[in-house]
Amino acid sequence: MSLRVAVQMDPLESINIAGDSSFALMLAAQNRGHEVWHYDVSTLAWESDGTPAGKITAHAAPVTVKPVKGDHFSAGGRRRVDLARDIDVVLMRQDPPFHLGYISAAFLLDRLKGTTLVINDPREVVNAPEKMFVLDYARFMPPTMIARHLDDLKTFQREHGSIVVKPLHGNGGKAIFRLDTDGTNLSALSEVFDKTWPEPHMLQPFLPEVSEGDKRIVLVDGEFAGAINRFPGEGEFRSNLAQGGHAEAATLTTREEEICAAMGPELKKRGLVFVGIDVIGGNWLTEINVTSPTGIVAIDKFNGTDTAGRIWDAIERRHADQ
């Protein structure tokens, strides 16, 4: 059955198709005969019609995509599309940060429940901030503190020495700092964080095991689908590919298999179809990415798999069952 698919994401002109997971999902949908549309989240609107669901629209354009760098898409005329009447599936794929704009869009899309399938489930995305949802699996995490009072931050550093400080709702490895054991810069960094972000910060010990890799593991509808191991670039401790890291093929450790088994049923129950988790050194779970996970292009390159196709298998099953 051909589906009408709308992808809520950043401008297509700006993406790097060599590694973009959203593009891979669009291409896979098109190859299955689905009709693909694109819209920017800034055009999403709700209008009253006397019902709680209301009328939810976006200014969308039909698109054709192809794996040709510099000529990777063509678009038809953009028009106001009724997401309940004209669309079967919405992929919520705009990049974080996870701020009030992101949350507001998710709450609007949640009102499509029962008519249009939204992936990942927007209400569950709101309920699962990536550095907070992971706390449900604290037994797999390194020592962690979420706080903003300087006395608490200093206590944590005294206990753990060299630490890593992250914005609680950051993404892509941005604004992640490693502080040495002397604590010289902690007060200044705390001041900058407090002025930039209104929420607490996440602190963890620096894990030397990062030299063994920061593994991105993808789960599809709660099942393991593939993994890559990411390594920091020269002079870096961050292994994110967006920060100059490089990827290699990977298999799971026994501990990582245990982590996947522990969270898989909950991810499926919540409608979190495409999830990426990060595990350092084969042992320490650090994040559960549910907003706009990445990594499937590299996973498929190293493993000869079709993760985008597997995601569409899951979406099609859910659409048929709703």
Description:
With 322 residues, the chain is of the alpha+beta class. It has three domains: 4-123, Rossmann fold (3-Layer(aba) Sandwich), CATH 3.40.50; 130-134 and 209-314, ATP-grasp fold, B domain (D-amino Acid Aminotransferase, Chain A, domain 1), CATH 3.30.470.20; 143-206, Dna Ligase, domain 1 (2-Layer Sandwich). Helix content is 29%, strand content 27%. It is built from nine helices and 17 strands. It has helices at 21-31, 100-110, 122-126, 130-133, 150-160, 186-196, 254-270, 296-303, 307-321; strands spanning 4-8, 35-39, 45-47, 55-65, 73-75, 79-82, 89-92, 117-119, 145-147, 163-167, 177-179, 201-205, 214-220, 223-231, 246-249, 274-280, 284-289. β13 (214-220) and β14 form a beta hairpin. It is globular and about 60 Å long. The model has no long low-confidence stretch (mean pLDDT 94).
Helical coverage, percent range: 25-40%
**What is the SS-derived class?**
alpha+beta
Rounded to the nearest angstrom, the radius of gyration is 20 Å
Largest sheet, in brief, is: 8 strands, mixed
The CATH topology of the largest domain:
Rossmann fold
The CATH architecture category of the largest domain equals 3-Layer(aba) Sandwich
Mean pLDDT: 94
The ordered H/E elements are EHEEEEEEHEHHEHEEHEEEEHEEHH
Q: Which regions have little confidence, pLDDT < 50, spanning 5+ residues?
A: none
- What amount of the residues lies in strands? 25-35%
Our count of helices gives: 9
Ends: how far apart?
A: 15 Å
Give the beta-strand count: 17
Number of domains: 3
**Morphology:** globular
